[in-house]
């Protein structure tokens, strides 16, 4: 199981704070609610724009249920090699209409190396999420008393494709 908490603004900040010792947080078991105990750490590599570093991920254990919880810093999503802001930068450039070539060359340095297929996978994932997320956000905006016709912001309400929906989502967020 993974829990994601805000631990430092960057890999470097995270390493400075938690490179040698685990964060001092009190966690309780999601099953039995008892206090979890610190349970070692494992290491994984994380790539940001300019370099790839190895960071410790700390684990906690419920001695009653036997489940372990890994505490991930919020700049990572589970199993992702790249930090979240590199992924966001790639999606934003794609939304601006930049070419794959341009995106691959600008979101990460050659030393880190990011492939077109990785960016394509992120974009596909983003398009897959855009429709449910944009409808949810539109609902929140209307719920908070916004009277504008939000569909007016939609680039193509009548014949919408996932790419149109992603553009709509961006406009709703801006
Ligand atoms: Zn438990």
Secondary structure elements and pairings:
Elements lengths: L1 E4 L5 H8 L18 E11 L4 E10 L6 E6 L10 H12 L4 H8 L8 H28 L18 H12 L1
Helix pairs in contact: 2-3, 2-4, 4-5
Describe this structure in words.
The protein is an alpha+beta fold. It has 2 domains: 2-73, no CATH class; 84-173, no CATH class. Helices cover 39% and strands 18% of the residues. The chain is built from 5 helices and 4 strands; from the N terminus they run βαβββαααα. A 4-stranded mixed β-sheet has the order 1-4-3-2, covered by helices on one side. A hairpin with a 6-residue loop joins strand 3 (52-61) and strand 4 (68-73). Helix 2 (84-95) runs antiparallel to helix 3 and helix 2 packs across helix 4 (116-143). The longest helix has 28 residues, at 116-143. The two termini are 34 Å apart. Bound molecules: zinc ion (ZN). Zinc ion (ZN) binds next to loops.
Short description:
The protein is α+β, with helices and mostly antiparallel strands and 174 residues long. The protein has helices at residues 11-18, 84-95, 100-107, 116-143, 162-173, and strands at 2-5, 37-47, 52-61, 68-73. Helix 2 packs antiparallel against helix 3 (100-107) and helix 4 (116-143) packs across helix 5.
């Amino acid at each position: 199981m993974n829990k994601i908490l805000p631990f430092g603004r960057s890999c470097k900040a995270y390493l400075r704070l938690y490179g040698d010792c685990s964060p001092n947080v009190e966690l309780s078991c999601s099953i039995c609610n008892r206090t979890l105990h610190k349970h070692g750490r494992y290491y994984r590599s994380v790539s940001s724009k300019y370099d790839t570093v190895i960071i410790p991920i700390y684990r906690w254990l419920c001695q009653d249920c036997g489940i372990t919880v890994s505490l991930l810093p919020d700049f990572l999503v589970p199993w992702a090699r790249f930090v979240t802001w590199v992924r966001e930068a790639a999606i934003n450039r794609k939304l601006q209409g930049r070419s794959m070539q341009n995106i691959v060359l600008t979101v990460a340095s050659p030393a880190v190396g990011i492939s077109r297929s990785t960016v394509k996978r992120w974009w596909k994932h983003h398009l897959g999420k855009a429709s449910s997320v944009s409808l949810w956000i539109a609902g929140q905006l209307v719920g908070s008393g916004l009277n504008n016709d939000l569909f007016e912001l939609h680039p193509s309400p009548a014949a919408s494709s996932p790419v149109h929906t992603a553009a709509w989502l961006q406009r709703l967020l801006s």
